[in-house]
Description:
The chain is of the alpha/beta class. 25% of the residues lie in helices and 26% in strands. The strands form two sheets. Strands 4-3-6-1-2-5 form a six-stranded antiparallel beta sheet. Helix 7 (225-231) links the parallel strand 9 and strand 10 (239-242).
Amino acid sequence: MASWRRSMSTYRAALSHLERTAHQPRQNGLQEVILSKIDEVNPSIRLLQLALPNRASLKFFPGQWLDVFIPGLAKAGGFTITSTPRDADYQSSRDGYVELAIQESPKNPPAAWLWRPTSEILGKSLLIRVGGSFVWPPPAIDAAKVKRLVLVAGGVGINPLISIFAHIYGQAALKPEHIRFLYSSRGSSQKLDEILFYPRILKLMTARPSPNRTLELYLTGPSNASHVAETHGSLTDEVSVRNRRISHEDLISALGPVKERKGVVTYVCGPARMTDEFVDVLQSAEGMTEDRVLCEKWW
């Protein structure tokens, strides 16, 4: 089974974004946007804001991605939306926008174009189209019955989950009541601010603290636990940093008591091998069913 999965991953990796996602739902039309802002989170990841001109708005669900059509490139790139649907609405003080986190990928033509020098691409017009089915609320489940949400991210797999997490935190009634966020990163404890979206998650949780909503950050790069404790005083009982990988025991613990798992939904997004492994663990956990373990797979 593992060998078959690796073969399929290799095959799908050779396909273009449009080919890999041909079976996914998409909106019909294309929408123009302007590349209006570029920030570098760390040496390998940029945050881009795509402004929606002429008081336009964009409708999408948290967790979806964009087909991004770039002038001069034959094939569109696929990039997950990291902002919330609320951000895409026009406001009197600003245009609506969508945000993308782009990892430097010289062999991926759309990503390479978006990593050109800022002076060459800022202000350029692009065309976008929304797609994807890895969304909140879960398509086949009544969101009102979800009592515990478990988000599991590995690396840039954080992208759809930050959109979901921020969207939920932006609602007046913060539901589901229990949220467990497990986030694995190769980042270093010496540079927590350079870990993609960690500062944003921390800001959201600090603004609306609750012992029922926790973040567990797992660092697999150079780390020093004492350094974290000494230099990051904002860490709270709801936010913990661990210098190891996410274990199967961590996943099972995040699901909560077996008798309450009918109200649990999990979202998993990360590297192919991690995602396949964690989905198997979660789906086979006592009290869980396959329809309540959602994952994003582009391979």
